[in-house]
């Protein structure tokens, strides 16, 4: 009777999850929270949970009683990520004889027996994620015995075959065989207890990103902006009616082979969930921003889902043009110091003919925005005279806080061109100063006057003076100046300047 009682205590409890919750980070991982109903007996309990993702990080798993009334003493936690497959079962029968079903086109199927000499199964291939490519190659060599591509070797009638003679027929699955990734716990309980335990863990295979559509009218630059959240689930698990939060920001997350010791993944983010019937809400969370979807939603495995999170109409924006005329081969001068650059007389003398089209707007409440905007792709459209939207460019924006300016390059202007050439270069003796002069030509083939912001980089040295200039300029940083030039329709405007360096 005593032995029978112990047997009852160690029988596995297979549990399922309910009310899942997700906090998805825009760095290709998520924190999952599930509810695990437990019916514990006094003593040791074996509990099996089969509803994890296929990319769970086992060392991140937390199992606890959210009420704090029951202390769960975890004696062991095991994660099995080797779901049953034909190759795996073959590996379990290496050295043994099993039946194979052979189908023949001209006769009834036949059962033949074959001894599994080698299965071809690559054990622990997922160890590549932790132990790098060398480990993977060693496992492949182990499976292949130095030859072939991991084909099975079966002995039939005293002869070896480098393929299966037919469909393998296996005995009944063993009790420890898993059909999908499984967490097993051995939980010690001082008394019988029933509770809904909370399971939280970090998983890969999930991501989200923001995307924005910006629509301008036929004339003018007052825009309408729509922001969408796109969630992608490749985790191997479907989350039904999940409460979902999204973290925007650059959270420090270790890579599998990283030596960094600081991992700042906030598991608490998965447990601090609130109901809301409004639109997507946003708030500051730690050093990041947290976006909460207003209602539970089902996120299927291998599904991409979009939810609107921002909409603003009548946002004031500015379109402007920039000419950065120095075309520099970065690869050619990679690793050059400023001392090397100042000695290269040809550096920066190649001309870039393209004038950039830029658009910017203030992310403020006064400008009908004022919500922290997560990084993502921005697509620009302009409405034609017939009302149809035409695509006019796209780019990426970084995380943009409230009251900051969004500035985006949308493409090269078709009807504006620039040309930059050096007109003088003189280096003093004993090489402690340098004079350099440039002429910049701007051409406007539009029907209206435009302003072009001409950016010049004073790359020779940090100590400089503009000795001569045809147009006023402003110093934008320690080695950059900017001219703002008005160019009339079909006009070519020339500006010149001379810079004096000394060291």
What does this structure look like?
With 503 residues, the chain is mostly beta strands. The chain folds into three domains: 1-81 and 178-204 and 239-299, Immunoglobulin-like; 86-169, no CATH class; 314-502, no CATH class. Helix content is 8%, strand content 51%. It has four helices and 30 strands. It has helices at residues 2-10, 86-92, 128-144, 338-342; strands at residues 13-15, 18-25, 29-40, 43-49, 62-64, 73-80, 97-104, 107-118, 153-156, 159-161, 167-169, 182-189, 193-204, 206-216, 222-233, 239-248, 281-285, 288-292, 297-299, 303-324, 354-362, 376-383, 389-397, 405-427, 433-444, 450-457, 464-469, 473-477, 480-487, 491-502. The strands form four sheets. Strands 14, 15, 20, 21, 22, 23, 24, 25, 26, 27, 28, 29 and 30 form a 13-stranded mixed sheet that branches. A hairpin with a 2-residue loop joins β7 and β8. The model is unreliable at 1-17, 145-149 and 257-278 (pLDDT under 50).
């Amino acid at each position: 009777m005593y032995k029978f009682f112990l047997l009852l205590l160690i029988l596995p409890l297979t549990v399922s999850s309910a009310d899942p919750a997700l906090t998805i980070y825009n760095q290709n991982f998520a924190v999952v929270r599930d509810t695990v109903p437990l019916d514990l007996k006094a003593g040791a309990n074996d509990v099996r949970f089969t509803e994890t993702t296929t990319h769970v990080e086992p060392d991140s798993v937390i199992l606890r009683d959210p009420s704090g009334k029951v202390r769960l003493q975890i004696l062991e936690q095991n994660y099995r990520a080797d779901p049953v497959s034909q190759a795996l079962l073959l590996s379990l029968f290496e050295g043994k004889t099993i039946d194979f079903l052979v189908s023949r086109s001209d006769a009834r199927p036949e059962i033949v027996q074959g001894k599994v000499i080698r299965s071809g199964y690559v054990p622990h291939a997922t160890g590549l994620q932790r132990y790098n490519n060398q480990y993977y190659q060693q496992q492949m060599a182990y499976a292949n015995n130095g030859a072939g591509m991991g084909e099975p070797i079966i002995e039939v009638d005293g002869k070896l075959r480098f393929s299966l003679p037919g469909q393998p027929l296996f005995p009944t699955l063993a009790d420890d065989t898993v059909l999908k990734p499984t967490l097993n716990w051995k939980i010690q309980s001082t008394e019988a207890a029933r509770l809904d335990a909370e399971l939280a863990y970090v998983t890969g295979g999930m991501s989200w990103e923001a995307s924005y559509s910006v629509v301008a009218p036929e004339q003018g630059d007052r825009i309408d902006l729509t922001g969408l959240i796109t969630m992608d689930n490749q985790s191997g698990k479907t989350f039904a009616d999940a409460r979902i939060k999204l973290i925007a920001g650059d959270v420090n997350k270790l890579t599998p082979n990283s030596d960094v010791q600081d991992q700042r993944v906030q598991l608490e983010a998965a447990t601090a969930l609130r109901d809301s019937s409004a639109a997507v809400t946003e708030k500051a969370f730690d050093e990041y921003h947290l976006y909460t979807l207003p209602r539970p939603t089902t996120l299927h495995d291998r599904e991409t889902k979009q939810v609107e999170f921002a909409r603003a109409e009548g946002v004031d924006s500015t379109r402007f043009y920039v000419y950065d005329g120095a075309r520099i081969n970065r690869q050619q001068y990679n690793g050059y110091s400023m001392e090397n650059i100042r000695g290269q007389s040809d550096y920066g003398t190649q001309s870039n003919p393209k004038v950039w089209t830029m658009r910017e707007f203030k992310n403020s409440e006064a400008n009908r925005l004022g919500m922290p905007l997560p990084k993502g792709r921005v697509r620009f459209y302009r409405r034609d005279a017939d009302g149809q939207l035409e695509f006019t460019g796209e780019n990426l924006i970084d995380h943009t806080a409230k009251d900051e300016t969004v500035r985006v390059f949308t493409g090269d202007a078709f009807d504006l061109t620039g040309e930059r050439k050096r007109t003088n270069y003189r280096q003093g003796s004993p090489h402690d100063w340098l004079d350099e002069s440039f002429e910049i030509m701007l051409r406007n083939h539009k029907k209206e006057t435009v302003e072009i912001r001409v950016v010049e980089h004073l790359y020779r040295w940090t100590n400089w003076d503009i000795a001569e200039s045809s147009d006023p300029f402003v110093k934008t940083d320690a080695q950059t100046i900017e001219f703002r030039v008005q160019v009339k329709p079909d006009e070519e405007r020339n500006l010149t300047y001379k810079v004096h360096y000394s060291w």
